Amino acid sequence: MKKLFTFLPVLALILVVSSCSSVRVAADYDKEATFSQYKTFAFFKTGIDKAEISDLDKRRILRAIEAELLAKGFTKSENPDVLISLFTKSQQRVDVYNNSWGMGRWGWGGYGGFGPGWGWGWNQPSTSVSTQGHLYIDIIDANKKELVWQGMGTGYLSRNMEKKEERIKEFVSQIMEKYPPGAEN
Q1: 85, 93, 70, 64: which is closest to 136 by C-alpha?
Q2: Domain of residue 68, CATH code
Q3: Full-model pTM
Q4: For 94-127, how does the pLDDT look when each residue is reduced to its tens digit (9 = 90+)?
Q5: How far is CA 165 from CA 42, 99, 136, 157, in A?
Q6: Which residues form the signal peptide (predicted)?
């Protein structure tokens, strides 16, 4: 039993760390679109300006998207085949942990039912706050002005600048693995 209580916190920590580091991705696309014809891109400023994140984070995301598209053989153009847009959502998650037992010093009891006494009871609950972010990357056919592909990534964000930069690259990279449809491993 003692080994179980020693192992449970380690298991919980592993689950928390692994769930925080992963990005869940999904993609949807127009089955009628011919993705092989798309070779050039530009960013859709109107759509990007509506994203409710800091300009610093927008630039981080756009640099990551640009790097991924260039790696896929796209070129940036004034007369693009596709326009790239994005939007984001985030939500805070608050977890309250109230499951630890401890020794208490004060309480009702003692001689005659009054005064200080010792006994088992609940410790102070602890809380954890994390931010879950959703990043949507839209690829729009520039001629038809129609959405042809949308990738979405969901995961936990970091407030640390260096970690945030890496996390954004991870989000974008994993989302863009789904483009073009059928190319993912």
Answers
A1: 85
A2: 3.30.160.670
A3: 0.70
A4: 767 766 555 555 445 555 555 555 555 555 677 7
A5: 22, 35, 17, 10
A6: 1-26
